[in-house]
# Entry
Amino acid sequence: MNNRIAGLKQRSLQAVPRISTERAVLITEFYRSKKADMVSAPVRRALAFKHILENKKIHIDPDELIVGERGPAPQETPTYPEITAHSLEDLDILDKRPKISFKVSEKTKKIYREKIIPYWRGRSMRDKIFERMTQEWKDAYEAGIYTEFMEQRAPGHTVLDDKIYKKGFLDFKKDIRRSLKNLDFLHDSQASDKREELKAMDICADALIRFAERHAEKAEELQKNENDEKRKQDLKKIAGICRRVPARKPQNFWEALQYYWFVHLGVITEFNTWDSFNPGRLDQHLYPFYKKGLEAGTLTHESARELLQAFWIKFNNQPAPPKVGVTAEESGTYTDFALINLGGVKKDGSDGVNELTFLILDVIEEMRLLQPSSAVQLSKKNPDTFIKRALKIIKTGYGQPSVFNTDAIVQELVGQGKSIEDARNGGASGCVEVGAFGKENYNLTGYFNLTKVLEITLHNGTDPRTGKKIGLKTGGPSSFSSYEELFEAYSKQLKHFIDIKVAGNNVIERLYAEYLPAPFLSLLISDCIERGLDYHDGGARYNTSYIMGVGMGTITDVLTSIKYNVYDRGGVSMKGMMEALENNFKGSEELRHRFLNKTPKYGNDDDYADGIMQSVFETYHNLIDGRPNTKGGTYHINLLPTTVHVYFGRVTGATADGRLAYHPLSEGISPVQGADRKGPTAVFKSASKMDHVRTGGTLLNQKFTPHLLEDNEGLDKMSHLIRSYFKLDGHHVQFNVVSAEILREAQKCPEKHRDLIVRVAGYSDYFINLGEDLQEEIIRRTEHKSF
Amino acid sequence: MTEGIIFDIKRYAIHDGPGIRTTVFMKGCPLNCLWCHNPEGKSPEPELIYFPKKCRETCRLCIEACPENALSKNGTVKFDQSRCRRCGTCADACVYEALELAGNTKTAEEVVGEVRKDKIFFDESGGGVTFSGGEPLMQPEFLEDMLDRFKQLGIHTAVDSCGYAPSDVIERIARKADLFLFDIKIIDEKKHKKYTGVSNELIIENLNKLLNMKCAVWIRIPLIAGINDGPDDIKAIAAYLSSLKPIERVSLLPYHRAGTGKEDKLQKNLRVSAKNIFQAPSPERRAEIAAEFSNSGLKVKEGG
# Structure
């Protein structure tokens, strides 16, 4: 990389994440104003958005090509008090916690004490949610049965398609006008609400155009005082670009990137959306600009590379907004899950890989940044050169890119009722969840602890950790005369807790629709403008709610062990087992090792255990899939954990697979750490016995020694391995290529391994930034070696 | 229905022939190489492997399980060799993985059932099954039956052999196997005998036979520092191999320590413990050796 990029990268890496009060002060100012009281909810949100963008500080780094920051400077992270009003104690925790901290100055605390907290306490969405939730919801939440995504962050969970490359915001304004004109006040009882929503979108469109102009003004001002002739030229260009986009559609590669970046900033300024935002199929979207630029001689490979690198740095400058409490436990990372998708297929189903795909892969390898995350979509139609190029990056031990199965994704989306074109244009975002890019609100509502529900089943509805009765009375452990009876009771408890979760979700969805509409995001996602409906209120073409099952490996092994040892093979009594679990296997080492070493385990292509995985999968799927949400859409499942398997483990006692109390659960659909002993093909076979196509994403982690990918033949075999898993309809796989010794060494001397990046679950992170239990969990994952 | 003794089946074997493979380790070997990687493959009979470090002092599961009363314990488990029938009941009973039975009787059908689970990976990668050991040619009927069954399933077969087998056995198997992975260790006959316990005359004869029969052969050469990596040894092997045509490829397998430690744990006395004696040639020397083969017109690769 050249000096400019190296400098920008260094500054991005060196900047310390800190809390900025800029946004909190501006939004509070606006909400306190008379104007805010007088207007409808969507217009209030739009005017607040406008107020922030009109008044926030404009930052342009001395060397930048792509401009715009969410905060006043890189790594300065805003807060969203209308969603979570952090207390002074929260700020203290954010400041002082050893991992994923944000520096909080005394001035920030003072502003919070005097301005932010007094206004927002009791008014924030988090306060509203907890006020509206029932006692049984709160009990299950506190027990760690599930988490709630929307309690500290707004729904987002969406990705952009190609519309911004075809239309400027002035064009969107035209669409809004058309939609306004079509409102039918005679027959449509919602016409007035729709008018407010469309008005709000229009205000947001103007606000973003004005925000870009402010960057143009800043660039012009900097240009006047700039002595370096080359930089002067850059600034002049930047000013010109910011006056053109996002108002008009982009004309070239640079404008396209800058346009997306303004849109990105708009989305993550309006709300602290989950998974920030994401340009989607970047290689396909940018390719026409790339090709045109090369042909016209206005762009070179090198200048395209430099612009992409500059673009990459912008993502890295924006850490995920600060999280506390359970939300910090379930997603303990600075990564904000903007997952760039490469490859796959085009709208017409043909091979989507182009020259730009390879250039972007070069950029990913060279930048080696935490953000944005990157993924390759591998279709049977893509060339081997593509997957092998990606594997060459994976083998450097960076945990990126992750690998997705396009052909499965298309089936999944079509199965959910999307059109074939929308499905092909879709992909994976965040960790592994699928969506129709630019057209869907696919909300991840919370993680679900499959193993904890069994623990509660085995205690007749009581949580043994707290002694609180939170489940149904389905009978004590000795009352189950067969495994089938136990499973039946487990299914009833599952339904009980899923009902509670869904009822809570339905309330929360309405709270967002009513109090916190998202008119800016609504501009971008089809068909909110056409329908005159907000993104939070069913405006998107497709509306999906997901509940993410966690610990498939653990729950399978636990049920397998009970079936095998207590019912089928015998030799272990239910009473003896329960006593051993209660005592965390103290005095029952022999039993624990029988569970660990003499019991079938998921991940070994063993139908005994894998059959139980299938039964859990089917039950969980059937209890959730197809339920209606409040936005006219439906529920589906996916299976991913981020970091929640550590938290869920911490609330779950010892289990019959030999796991000790409060240790992490398995992650995603991966086998329990160390339980898979027959190599990667057996893991893939086991994992593929679940019907991935009926999910909205599954996450499989694999760990390989670097040796396995050393030469071209190793890469070939790895690509065959992946392609075989994908033939079996596997959804996703990601790799850690790093030895356990190196990870151990990094634990001992973190200062020497600051740049060591590992795959956690659906994202990569700096190893030294992970909590100690998560570090241990990753080390314990089975490492596939060569034989 | 044939059956035989297998001591391991390993999936995702990527150094035992083309593509992704499953390797079946068959028990028994006519050679007694000092540096043996798989000492548990030498004897044709099942053997117990004991890992005292994993054994729990107060546990008596194996002792109580043994139908022959062959086990006793004084800190560690002691085995009465005259009573032990190598039935493996003790290993089944041990929950701490301190006892392992190397060698189980399996039918050809059972082995095929296990191997074919990875057919999709074989098909995608051009892989298949590899028979290794031990020495697969020590169980010719069993091997032949399995080769037939795999052929029917359309699964590619490879036989990893030391080449020391009666010539009629070699011929029979050669007609069935898709590929031979054929070990050449040392050309000097006396030296060969010293380190492996047998003369290489039959081995060389068998290799010539395979090539005359137009079998696909990959040559595998274990490289052990100070034993067969000297200039004379390497020159001799290169000269010999380049006189044979065609050889698809020559694989150089630098010695690795995976086999050491296992020797001590086998419940019998082997003639020398390999522990800490052998080493792979240095990377520089390995590069020189590879160049030597390459200069002799051979397609050479380090690793399987």
